[in-house]
Each structure stands twice: as C-alpha cells, then as structure tokens.
C-alpha cells in the first residue's frame, strides 16, 4: 500500500493528541514532520506537549517549533478548555528529545522541496505557520498536494458567536491561506461538533492499552464536552478525512475569512449556494457518518501501543 506523505501542524491540546495518534498509527499515512504553533496554549507549551507525545509513542518524526503569536494580533489561547499546560491530566516521563533549530515554516518548506512527490499538509491549529510558509516561499505551493484543515464553520462559531477558534485566533493568516490557490479541505464545526466519542466508549479506553490509559487521563481534563455527555474530537476529523474520506459529505464552494468586522473577525463566510458569484476555493465538509467515524476511531486506537 502506497502511503500518503503528511506534515502535521498542531497546537496540542488534548484533541490534538488524538489526531497525532491517528497520524502516527494509521497504516495509510506517512507522517514526515510535526510543527507547532501557538493556539490552545503558548508555542513553548505546544512544542513541549508535542515532544512529550512523540516520546510517549517512541515516534521517529522530527518536530519544528513555529509561530509564537498570530500575524497581527495578540495571542488568545484555550487554556480554559485544555488546562494551563495544554495536556492536563497525565504525567509524561522526562526525555531529551529536542525540536529542530529551523522555524516551522522553513522546516515545512525544506521537507516539501526534498519530497519526491507532493505532500499533504494537515493543519489543526491557527494557520499562522501555513501563511508564513506561503508568504516566504510561494514557490513551494506546487509541492503541496492539498491542505486539510480543522477550522471554520458554515454556521455558528465556538469562540465568538460566528467564528471558530482556530480561524478567529489568526484571521489574517486564514485569509491568506484561503486566497492562496491551494487545494483546501475544510473540516469545520459543521462536522467536528458531530464527531463525538460516547461516554461508554471513553470508559473502555483504560483497558485498551497504554495509549488508551493516557488518552483517558487527558480526556478527564478536556472541556470539549464532558465525560458524561461525550467528547468532541475536532482535530481528529482531519485525519479521518484522509484515511476514510467516504465518511464525509463535502461541498465545493467559495470561502472568505472576515478580518475587519468589529464583531465578526475570524468568521468564515461559506458561500454554499453561490450567491457571491465567486469561484470555489475549498471543499467544505458539511456532513459526517458519525457511526462510521466512531468505528474508525476504535480501529485506529487498537493499532496504538
């Protein structure tokens, strides 16, 4: 089986840990680089968290630290959802693993240009690193097969009334990315709010393996839902799309990112009905086979140590 080469840009974050597990252990994927960005918590913390997870899974994947702040705005984080550390609930062992010395956007460029085939970028945090990549190295766009991102919404938001967190944290970066001409798949709140793991399933994790024990401990501190009503796996949807695209219903449409609105900055304007008369620039996931998603999650976790 020919694997899909992948670069994962992330801001761990508890649901990011699930996405990283899936990127590492899904047989269809070849995770070649992990990069970090400020988002759920500071970039120093997201980098530490990503290194801890890579060490936990003994993964031989390089990591590069990325942007410490949005392009133009001060950072607003989500520590209230993920805990002050970003990975509250589990005590990881000490290790000597280090990030690369090159910044994330340069490390992505180097990996893209060295690849014998186009690479899929997966972005599950604010899009700052991707915007920096496209601004500094526009010539590398040809080496990007597609960008699959967790962000945005065709309806309501989860950070402001109309804006989803990842896009709202750095609207200027998101606007740059959606204008770039890249092939974009947007997994926004329309599907990620449906990607809920049930309390019964979550309760089985400690008996599964070491990964299940660790993830269950993290989930007990996650505020993306609750242990009694179910937990939303926002970021995991991007990996699910790569591995099992048939779980998703996508609509090809024009997406713009609002950057100026006093109350609407970070809103993704998703023109499902073509009212703006603009050419489509993204495929937007609008529906999810929830039972199929849950079955895939169980299969994927069974492959982890």
From TrEMBL:
Cellular component terms (Gene Ontology): cytosol
GO biological process entries: purine nucleoside catabolic process
Hydrolase as UniProt keyword: yes
Domain of life, source organism: Bacteria
Family matches, as InterPro entries: Inosine/uridine_hydrolase_dom (IPR001910), IUNH (IPR023186), Ribo_hydro-like (IPR036452)
GO function term, MF aspect, one: purine nucleosidase activity
NCBIfam families listed in its UniProt record: PRK10768.1
Protein name: Ribonucleoside hydrolase RihC
Pfam family, any one: IU_nuc_hydro
Keyword terms, alphabetized: Glycosidase, Hydrolase
């Amino acid at each position: 089986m020919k694997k899909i080469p992948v670069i994962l840009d992330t801001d761990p974050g508890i649901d990011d840990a699930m996405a990283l597990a899936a990127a590492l252990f899904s047989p269809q994927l070849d995770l070649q680089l992990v990069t970090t960005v400020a988002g759920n918590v500071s970039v120093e913390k997201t980098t530490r968290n990503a290194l801890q997870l890579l060490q936990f899974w003994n993964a031989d994947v390089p990591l590069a630290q990325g942007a410490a702040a949005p392009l133009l705005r001060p950072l607003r984080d989500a520590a209230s959802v993920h805990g002050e550390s970003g990975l509250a609930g589990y005590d990881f062992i000490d290790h000597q693993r280090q990030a690369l010395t090159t910044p994330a956007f340069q490390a992505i460029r180097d990996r893209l240009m060295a690849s014998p085939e186009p690479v899929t970028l997966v972005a599950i945090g604010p899009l700052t690193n991707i915007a920096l990549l496209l601004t500094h190295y526009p010539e590398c766009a040809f080496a990007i097969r597609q960008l699959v991102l967790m962000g945005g919404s065709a309806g309501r938001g989860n950070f402001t009334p109309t804006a989803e967190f990842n896009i709202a944290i750095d609207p200027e970066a998101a606007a740059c990315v959606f204008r770039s001409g890249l092939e974009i798949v947007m997994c926004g709140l329309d599907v990620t709010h449906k990607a809920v793991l049930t309390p019964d399933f979550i309760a089985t994790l400690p008996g599964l393996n070491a990964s299940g024990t660790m993830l269950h401990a993290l989930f007990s501190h996650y505020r993306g839902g609750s242990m009694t009503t179910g937990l939303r796996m926002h970021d995991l949807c991007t990996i699910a799309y790569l591995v099992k695209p048939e779980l998703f219903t996508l609509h090809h449409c024009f997406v713009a990112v609002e950057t100026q609105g006093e109350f609407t900055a970070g809103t993704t304007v998703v023109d499902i009905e073509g009212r703006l008369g603009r050419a489509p620039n993204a495929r937007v996931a609008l529906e999810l086979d929830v039972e199929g998603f849950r079955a895939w999650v169980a299969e994927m976790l069974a492959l982890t140590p």
